[in-house]
Design goal:
A 6-stranded mixed beta sheet has the order 3-1-2-4-5-6, sandwiched between helices. The two termini are 21 Å apart. The chain has 206 residues and is of the alpha/beta class. The chain is globular and about 50 Å long. It has 8 helices and 6 strands, in the order ββαβαβαααβαααβ.
Length: 206
């Protein structure tokens, strides 16, 4: 998470949405940087804990900005990321299993460690119906996201891909896709809402 007090915005790092690249590009301009284990602070925690602290301490409540990725692609990114050689032999490795199996593990009642990846819906909302980020951009609409950052930070923002997952084939069967869409319907509904807002969903927080 990156806090830009002077420009009154905070970037929330939704996992597997290109956050490392954004962090590398913008970290020098941020007044406050949450990294490592504190990098992925959720929208609800920011709204309820961090934002009030910033307002009390610095007299400014930065608007929260986050990115959401198409749900299947985001899970596929996790699958590829955990197929890296450095994870071979660990409980997080997805080496040797299909993407189809991985997805079924992700939506199971007791997912193994390698399939414990969280949900974008949980990261961006209160877990019910309320979106807790002021601005949510579609990952697939990078141009709009970068234009927003450039305008608010008053500086041209260019992002170079970082921490790219291995290029491996990861098809998903129709039955498993249907299961995923049923179990994680809220994720797909939220993503559709972002797309319907032309890739930039605005939900101002009180």
């Amino acid at each position: 998470m990156l806090v830009f007090l002077r420009h009154k915005i905070t970037f929330l790092a939704t996992p597997k949405t290109g956050t490392t690249a954004v962090e590398m590009a913008l970290k020098p301009r941020a007044e406050i940087v949450f990294s490592k284990n504190r990098k992925h602070i959720t929208a609800v925690r920011y709204a309820n804990k961090i934002a009030p602290f910033l307002e009390d301490t610095f007299g400014v409540r930065p608007a929260s900005v986050a990115v959401m990725r198409e749900p299947v692609d985001q899970i596929r990114s996790w699958y590829k990321y955990r197929s890296q050689k450095r994870l071979d032999g660990t409980k997080q490795s997805t080496k040797g299993i299909s993407f189809d199996q991985f997805v079924r593990e992700v939506v199971s009642d007791k997912p193994p460690e390698r399939a414990q990846i969280g949900r974008q819906f949980s990261f961006l909302t209160d877990g019910k119906t309320r979106v807790m980020a002021d601005h949510v951009f579609a990952y697939e609409n990078q141009e709009t996201f970068l234009m927003f950052l450039s305008e608010h930070l008053q500086h041209p923002v260019e992002i170079t891909p970082k921490n790219v997952s291995p290029m491996i084939d990861a098809p998903l069967g129709d039955e498993t896709l249907a299961l995923l869409r049923e179990v994680r319907a809220e994720d797909f509904m939220l993503y559709d809402a972002v797309l319907e807002a032309k890739g930039h969903l605005v939900t101002p927080q009180a």
